[in-house]
Design a protein that fits this description.
Layout (H helix, E strand, L loop, with lengths): L1 E6 L9 H18 L3 E4 L13 H11 L4 E8 L5 H14 L4 E6 L6 H6 L10 H13 L16 E4 L4 H8 L3 E4 L8 H11 L10 E5 L1 E3 L3 H21 L8 H5 L5 H13 L1 E3 L1 H15 L3 E4 L6 H14 L2
Parallel strand pairs: 1-2, 1-10, 2-3, 3-4, 4-5, 5-6, 6-7, 7-10, 8-9
Helix pairs in contact: 1-2, 1-12, 2-3, 3-5, 6-7, 8-10
Length: 322
């Protein structure tokens, strides 16, 4: 499998949000140095635990500090934007960083009603996602009624973040897919991926391609890796209790906090599901995942409070999958 990183610019308790963006850029530089194939950033709005709300702006900074690694979005939430504007943003990126830019696309409307209202998506407009994808591709290919600028002579590759019927849309449009989240644990996933590959309609010579996205953390031993997973598991458990996704906290602070029974159960479940451990443990888990999905690429979306430990994990994962 090819190996890539998705960095969501996670904020950290007691640290300015801007530091999360600086850490994203530094992680991209490190990812290029150790040999990753791609580095992707995210789009989230109004989330205390995530600083990245504008992938195109952040990718411009990442591209300026790197030379070879492919950079992309994981992903731009297309229902929140006009296809022409997205095309223009990524054509600018491609002009600045020629041949290195990927455009991952999703369909989330925002996590909470206030966020959806702020994004003017608090009412039902009908599902135009597939039509918007077609329009966006036409702009990128220079075949739309309006010519998006700058014209570079290259086509920025599109990838679809797919859950449920998104796999069907990707197959109809001849797009590669990124599959992550709860769908990875579904018993129906192998069959859904088989159907995607079987019904794939090539577009300009495209072929079915599957990327799996999941949290992966590697450390010298399983216990240490499990501790690295704890800040994200704790944040997820708190989010389900409060409805607000919080910044990452230091492990010592988490251990010193009250652990209500429901939070404890959710944290332990997250720790048990995580692909985290020694190199041998992680290799075994990834082999199982590859066998079940036939994935072409792994997009590691891991995060933890300790940024140095995160870089060390990135390095060990890269060494593991060379």
């Amino acid at each position: 499998m090819r190996l890539s990183l998705l960095d969501r610019s996670r904020t950290r308790d007691g640290v300015p949000d801007g530091d999360a963006l600086a850490a994203t850029v530094a992680r991209a530089v490190h990812a290029e140095q150790v040999g990753y194939d791609r580095f992707w950033v995210a789009e989230h709005h109004g989330v205390p635990g995530i600083a990245s709300g504008s992938p195109a702006v952040l990718l411009a900074a990442v591209g300026a500090r790197t030379d070879r690694i492919r950079i992309g979005s994981g992903g731009v939430m297309l229902p929140l934007h006009q296809p022409l504007v997205v095309a223009e943003q990524f054509l600018v990126l491609d002009a600045l960083h020629p041949g290195r830019v990927d455009l991952g696309l999703g369909r989330s409307l925002g996590f909470t009603p206030p966020v959806r209202r702020a994004l003017r998506r608090d009412h039902e407009d009908g599902d135009t996602f597939e039509d918007d994808l077609r329009e966006l591709r036409a702009h990128l290919e220079g075949t739309a009624e309006v010519t998006a600028r700058p014209a570079t002579g290259r086509v920025v590759p599109m990838h679809l973040l797919a859950t449920g019927r998104g796999l069907e849309v990707a197959a109809r449009l001849g797009l590669p897919v990124v599959v992550g989240g709860p769908v990875l644990d579904s018993d129906e996933l192998p069959g859904a991926l088989s159907a995607y590959r079987r019904t794939f309609r090539p577009h300009r010579g495209s072929e079915p391609r599957v990327t799996v996205s999941l949290d992966v953390l590697v450390a010298d031993d399983d216990r240490t890796a499990r501790e690295l997973v704890l800040p994200e598991a704790w944040a997820m458990a708190r989010a389900r209790r409060s409805g607000e996704f919080p910044p990452l906290e230091d492990v010592a602070a988490i251990r010193a906090s009250p652990w209500p029974d429901q939070v404890r159960r959710r944290v332990e479940a997250s720790l048990d599901r995580a692909v985290a451990g020694s190199p041998a443990t992680v290799a075994r888990r990834l082999e199982e995942l590859a066998g079940r999905t036939g994935a072409d690429e792994l997009l590691a979306s891991s995060s933890t409070y300790d940024t140095e430990a995160l870089l060390a994990s990135d390095r060990m994962l890269r060494e593991l999958l060379r």
